[in-house]
Write a structure and sequence with these properties.
CATH superfamily of the largest domain in chain A: P-loop containing nucleotide triphosphate hydrolases
Radius of gyration of chain B: 25 Å
CATH architecture of the largest domain in chain A: 3-Layer(aba) Sandwich
Number of helices of chain B: 19
Distance between the termini of chain B: 47 Å
Number of helices of chain A: 10
Structural class of chain A: alpha/beta
Number of domains of chain A: 2
Order of helices and strands of chain A: EEEHEHEHHHEHEHEEHEEHEH
Largest sheet of chain B: 2 strands, antiparallel
Number of strands of chain B: 4
Shape of chain B: globular
Helix content of chain A: 25-40%
Strand content of chain A: 25-35%
Largest interface: A-B, 35 and 37 residues
Strand order of the largest sheet of chain B: 1-2
Number of strands of chain A: 12
Structural class of chain B: mainly alpha
Oligomer: heterodimer
Strand order of the largest sheet of chain A: 5-6-7-3-8-9
Strand content of chain B: under 5%
Chain lengths: 301, 548
């Protein structure tokens, strides 16, 4: 286990009457890539902003490199690279000015790496930020965030605006290079295939809470998607142990379930059915099942 | 299609956007007008001037319907561009907003003037100025909305407001009444009608061609200054230190544009006076123009030094800047000092221009003076007054007063920056705080009226004002102590910054004492305390938006 880089404990944050984060705990260690997934308003960006000290916790604690980002912003921010979801960059600046401006704050700036990335993205240093497309802004922001080789890279929806080639080839490579270098990446995304492809760890958020968190492979192996067939015809999904979500109808149903496969199999047999086939669930299937489950629980409450 | 519902919906939207400002303007107009009627000899004419100023000249129109303020990321053109995607003809949504703007401002004037006239038994002009106010607002919205060219907007605003001002000035008579001839009324109607037509055409053009371009421009970073102004001076960003880079950032993004605008205004004043022998009016107008220009530079361009952005009713600070590894106290100090320095230089340029201009008009003015001493141009009067007041002072005293003036400018810029930050973080509390002086003024006026009618002892108001002075002073002391304690606890303040604030505050007191030896010691202490509080408030407020 590497050194703890981020340690969030029972973090809660409210905006007037809306609870954006509710008792969130999250830990990140060096050299790993952490993917945050969740629907809109789940609290991903709010959590990332707490890591940067842009938001103050209502309760709970946030430590980045053992420091409180609110009390010691310089100590934290000098070691963190950040790409915001809004891609807020000074519109009047040219790209080379943006690079020089960022360089002034970071003595570890690697000019050759920045140039290499500019070439890779084919960005013209003489162009103003206001002349860039959304994707090009993301690329410029990404270079400014990674070129000083920060110990922690925080990316909020990094793929937004990027085309498929840049997303798959370049972003993945940058993120992987950062992690291989022993540094840490935390990113949020709506694209579950991207999280599945890039992350070592996944954290699923829903309505301000962490509903699932763990090593990606462990998470995936803990959930199965099974196709089950019953003798009896069911109009409503039959109650099965460890089932999170079911879809289908009549005698054949597809079930996302967690926990012991044996327990699930016994439960199916007890209802007069059989498991036809079973495989590890994809992250998207897990996400949809967990989100649906949370919604049902909220409605029941 | 039933047009009534979209119109009602748009009126509701306009009301939602402007209701707070309507209340504020009504309060300020009533209190200031009542104060003038109550306390001054020429009460009615001054009250009338105040109302005209409040409802037309200062806040030309409801700010949010005029695209916001310059320092808030002011975006020229029609401000309610989200309506472009609605199935409503351009004439309908432009007409609704335009008439709402003109009618609401005029109605505010009429209500205030009628209330003040009734309460003090000194009637103010009502219906006779209605047409002027309506066409004034229509013309203003036309200039602001029909084009997205800022240069056209600035020049256009001057081009119509100066004739309007002189038209009003020429038709005011004492005892207070305003009368326009039939021809003048016809011209006002024509101005209004042409303005409506031009606005419809201009916005229709924007709707057809500019709709797409409008959206990305909302994210403008440069504080709304024209792009060519921001990029006029290009010099490389230093990479040797974060402080130097931040100074470069502040200068490029807002400091130099402010400076250049100030220099531009100074040159314009000089040119206007240079041709004064041909156009006598320019000499008379030079002083009000210079005063208005200085106020615009100080309160308009000196505003929002922290670069708070506004977008779709949301106020926020840029995450890009706030996530740079730079301490809050030095960041606040640096932002304020760079902006204040540029504002100060701009104001000095305007003052120097005014001084030089008065020399230019000297010969011509002497001739006018010989013919009719009442027509002594205002510019020469100001110059003479300035020379009389400051000429006899020693060089030491003059330097001291220059230090006082500089610290005052820095403090005003600092206060405005802190106020914007607090408004972003605590909008409701700031609104309540802003209303307190108005409520206080209203209470004092009502009390004075009551005492005049024999409902209380005469010295009561004086005692209340004195007590308020001490209460406010005590509140400032407590607030400063709290800000210092809280600032250090949150690490928003550093020892170095706090010492700097103390030194500036002490320097202000010492310089004031040196420049004006007869000054009241309590008054100096009071002002020094204001400066200390404002200096400490700036990093504290920036910290509150940096870590919201």
């Amino acid at each position: 286990m590497g050194q703890t880089v981020v340690d969030v404990n029972e973090l809660s944050r409210s905006f007037e009457h809306k609870k954006a984060l509710d008792g969130v705990s999250f830990r990140a260690t060096a050299g790993q890539v952490y993917g945050l997934v969740g629907s809109n308003g789940a609290g991903k960006t709010t959590l990332l902003k707490h890591l940067l000290g842009l938001l103050r916790a209502t309760s709970g604690s946030v430590r980045v490199f053992g420091l409180d980002p609110v009390r010691d912003p310089v100590g934290v921010l000098s070691r963190v690279g950040y790409l915001s979801e809004e891609r807020e960059l000074p519109e009047w600046m040219r790209i080379d000015e943006l690079m020089r401006y960022t360089q002034a704050f970071h003595p570890t700036w690697d000019a050759s790496y920045a140039r290499e990335l500019l070439d890779t993205f084919a960005l013209d240093p003489a162009k103003k930020v206001k002349e860039l497309s959304k994707g090009m802004r993301a690329q410029a922001g990404l270079i400014a965030a990674v070129a000083y080789r920060p110990e922690l890279l925080i990316l909020d929806e990094p793929s937004s605006g990027l085309d498929a080639v840049v997303r798959r080839d370049i972003l993945d490579a940058i993120v992987r290079a950062v992690a291989d270098d022993g540094r840490t990446v935390i990113f949020s995304s709506h694209l579950l295939d991207e999280v599945e492809r890039m992350s070592d760890h996944v954290t699923l958020m829903h309505e301000g809470r962490v509903t699932l968190s763990g090593v990606l492979d462990d998470v995936r192996s803990a959930y199965q998607r099974s196709r089950v067939r019953f003798v009896e015809h069911f109009d409503q999904p039959p109650a099965l142990d460890t089932a999170l979500a079911m879809e289908g109808g009549g005698r054949t149903w597809s079930v996302i379930h967690s926990g012991s496969p044996e327990q699930f199999r016994h439960s199916v047999v007890a209802r007069g059915g059989e498991v036809v086939e079973s495989r590890d669930a994809t992250l998207e299937e897990i996400f949809l099942a967990r989100a649906g489950r949370s919604r049902q629980q909220a409605e029941a409450a | 299609m039933n047009r009534a519902r979209p119109i009602v919906a748009m009126l509701w939207e306009n009301w939602q956007l402007t209701r707070v400002e309507v209340g504020q303007r009504l309060g300020v107009g009533l209190v200031a007008g009542a104060g003038a009627l109550l306390l001054l000899d020429k009460g009615p004419i001054i009250a009338f001037g105040i109302l005209m100023l409040v409802y037309s000249m200062v806040w030309f129109s409801v700010a949010k319907l005029s695209g916001g303020r310059l320092s808030d990321g002011y975006k020229p053109g029609f401000p309610l561009h989200l309506l472009y995607s609605r199935p409503v003809p351009t004439t309908v949504f432009v007409g609704v907003a335009m008439f709402y703007n003109a009618i609401s401002c005029t109605a505010l004037y009429l209500v205030s003037a009628a209330l003040l006239g009734f309460a003090f038994g000194q009637p103010l002009p009502l219906l006779s100025v209605t047409l002027l106010l309506v066409s004034w607002h229509l013309a203003y919205t036309c200039v602001q909305w029909s084009t997205r060219s800022r240069v056209f907007q600035w020049i256009g605003s001057l081009a119509f407001s100066l004739p309007m001002y002189f038209l009003l000035q020429n038709n005011v008579a004492l005892p207070l009444r305003v009368e326009f001839s039939t021809f003048e009324n016809a011209v006002l109607v024509l101005v209004g009608a042409v303005s409506i037509g031009l606005t419809f055409a201009g916005v229709a053009r924007q709707r057809r061609g500019d709709a797409v371009a409008v959206v990305p421009q909302q994210k403008e970073w440069s504080g709304g200054y024209p792009d060519w102004l921001v990029t006029l001076f290009r010099f490389r960003c230093p990479t040797s230190s974060a402080t130097r880079a931040q100074v470069w950032f502040e200068l490029r993004s807002s400091g130099l544009p402010v400076l250049l605008i100030g220099l531009g205004v100074a040159i314009l004043i000089f040119l206007a006076c240079a041709i004064s022998t041909l156009f006598a009016i320019s000499s008379i107008a030079a002083v009000p123009i210079a005063i208005v220009a200085s106020l615009i530079v100080l309160f308009g361009l000196g505003n929002n030094a922290f670069g708070i952005r506004r977008k779709q009713g949301r106020t926020y600070a840029s995450a890009f800047e706030l996530t740079q590894p730079y301490g809050t106290a030095p960041l606040a100090g640096l932002k304020v000092l760079v902006r204040a320095a540029c504002v100060l230089v701009a104001m000095i340029a305007i003052g120097a221009s005014l001084w030089a201009s008065s020399s230019l008009v000297g010969d011509w003015a002497q001739e006018v003076m010989n013919n009719n001493k009442d027509l002594l141009p205002a510019l020469l009067k100001v110059r003479q007054k300035f020379a009389d007041d400051f000429g006899p002072l020693t060089g030491y005293a003059q330097v001291a007063l220059a230090i006082v003036a500089s610290i005052v400018v820095v403090s005003i810029v600092t206060w405005q920056a802190a106020r914007e930050a607090l408004r972003t973080r605590y909008p409701r509390r700031v609104l309540v705080a802003q209303c307190l002086p108005v409520v206080w003024g209203l209470a004092i006026i009502l009390l004075t009226l009551a005492i005049r009618k024999g409902f209380g002892p005469v010295p009561l108001v004086g005692e209340i004002v004195k007590a308020s002075f001490w209460i406010f002073g005590a509140a400032m002391v407590l607030a400063t102590i709290y800000l210092l304690w809280s600032g250090f606890a949150e690490r928003a303040l550093t020892i170095r910054y706090a010492c700097g604030a103390l030194v500036i505050s002490a320097a202000f007191g010492a310089a004031w004492r040196a420049g004006v030896p007869a000054g009241d010691v309590v008054g100096i202490l009071w002002l020094a305390l204001v400066i200390l509080m404002v200096s400490v408030l700036a990093p504290w407020s920036l910290n509150r938006i940096r870590h919201a």
